[in-house]
Amino acid sequence: MSKMLAAVLHDFNKLELEQVPVPEAKEPGTVLVRIKACGFCQTDHKAIRGVRRNVKFPFIPGHEPSAVVEAVGPYVRHFKPGDDVICQPSGYCGMCPACRSGNTHYCDSAFTTGGDGPDDVWPGAFAQFMLTKENCLFRKPKGISYDAAALTEPLSGAWKGVIQYSEMQLGDDVVIIGVGSIGLLCLMVAKAAGAATLIAVDTSATARAKALALGATHAVDPAQGHTRQQVYAIIPRGPDLVVEAAGPIGAVKQMVELRRRGTKWNVFGITTHERFELDGGYTHFLEGRMDASFGTTPLAMTKALRLIEAGLVNVEKVISHRLPLTKMHEALTIMDGPDRNKVIINP
Question: What is the pLDDT of residues 179-229, one digit of tens each?
Fold first, then answer.
């Protein structure tokens, strides 16, 4: 049996580079892909460091890949070996009520390749090869690099949260809390969609500077305190939309404090089970709207690909580091620090 190099998580904080068997595309509809690039998501980092505990070991993380089809299983009709592809991590059956209604990320038989959410987790893309299903593949346009293509999935999540779910409108005043890589993608989507005032909130000076370079009109440091006052000094009437793209529960609480009447707010970044409080009457009379968004769908992937292909969002500008799979531990150390955006692994 042939072997491949993979980053295997055996326990929290125990990530090992080792040789494992190459999976085979034996089952109907399965496709084996050779990974060309994979984004290092904060979700992966949380799993490795034990912040996210819903992990079954051993586990190969990595759920933002671009690839080349290596082999196809029975009844695969639309892809062949040698095709350049982008892999959606959220697998689905296509036949259950959720799938038929377009909510494939709610699928009764959902699985994920290297990601989070469903109970059924397949080995991910921090490896030389990965097994997935045909309906999870999208063709990579020729003019897009493998590194950029790997960011289709996180960009699709940003589009889904900001545009599809929170329904951002042309001319809205938008606040993004947390401008790491996913926050920057939310910011770039909001910019492309015509945000008027676009405020980045982050404790990292590096992140704030990057946000300003990518289209934010203002940047606010919450470490200075009085975040609401800082934001309302810029937009006295308050924000139309607040997106929490940071992850910590403090960012969610900060989002709640920024509301005014009619504010839409999206619980986008937090994935851990932590609590925050709402004043019922105050929330009632504010008449705002809370949304949340997780995962992706074929529609969101298609929209993200269009944004990249049309040049409306230049995802290459979010990439701060590129490392080979052999330097996975160096990449993990970079992810531990504040001075990075999107880290790309090139197996």
Answer: 999 999 999 999 999 999 999 999 999 999 999 999 999 999 999 999 999
Tell me which residue range forms the domain holding 214. 155-292
Can you spell out the DSSP letters for 163-229?
IIIT---TT--EEEE--SHHHHHHHHHHHHTT-SSEEEE-S-HHHHHHHHHTT-SEEE-GGGS-HHH
Residue at 226 is within a domain: yes
State whether 285 and 179 are in the same domain: yes
Separation in Å, CA 174 to CA 181, 214, 221, 224, 232: 17, 14, 16, 20, 12
- pTM over 0.90? The answer is yes
Q: What share of the chain is helix, strand, coil (3-state, %, to 5)?
A: 30, 25, 40
Report cis status (omega within 30 of 0) of the bond before 58: yes
